[in-house]
Amino acid sequence: METSGSIITKNKIIKTNTNFHPNNKHKSGYDLEALCKAYPDLQPYVFENNYQIKTIDFANPKAVKALNTALLFRHYKITYWDFPETNLCPPIPGRVDYIHGLADVLKQNNIKSNISVLDIGTGASCIYPILGHAEYEWKFVGTDIDKTSLDHAQKIINKNQLDNVISLRYQTNKMQILKDILTEGDRFSIVMCNPPFYKSEKEAFEATTKKLRGLNKKQDKIIRNFSGTGNELWYKGGEKAFIHNYLYESSIFKKQCKIFTSLVSKKDLIPGIYASLKKLGATEVKTINMGQGNKVSRIVVWRFE
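Now predict its structure.
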């Protein structure tokens, strides 16, 4: 939920530095007045700054969660979305951009009906499945290595009556991604993954400190404004190790999944990903760039058919 490069009006935060997908509902910003009507619990976090402009404190985890909850309530037909404050609170505009990117990939590959998506690391928020179903009526299977996160995700599914379109699977081995999750009879249109970005808690802490400085916040105690547990934020070997493990396992399960995708935050990982996929026999690899404010990410897409 980047705020840099924004123009803030009385009721809206309008992003001028974004490059959201054309179908992204949030490409023009947030109508705070309408969001507070949709989710009144957001109202206490809205205030007028020194310029008499209405905004929220983006360094406050509770304010960020309230804003994202309001976005879901207003735009995605969600009536319940709650999980522990220790879990990652995903920024809705960026997450739904990944969904729209997948829709483009499916269209380009002439996959138009009975779409089934495997979401690796769905988390306590269950964010990609609820957004993907709301926007395109896709069916999802979400996986995670944390039972507690899956319990919270299941509650979100049940409360929103989505149990017939979203199911969850527990990954018992933290070092595996697709193994012990996929069965011989599984068939998925596309796989999505938002991998842990950091190698350790220390690296995640340093990234948070840098972000808070960017928000001009001086705090004695650093708190991640989007929260996040260890399983969600770091992996032994970091993003590179996770992705290359995923690449290898994708080659094992190429019959079960038509298309594989992953978000990649570090641009310098791309050449190695392409080289590995070539060795693994991928027949098509491409990169879709995503840009939101000062944050730049990308989706790598590959297939073996």
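The domain at 88-303 is CATH 3.40.50.150 (Rossmann fold).
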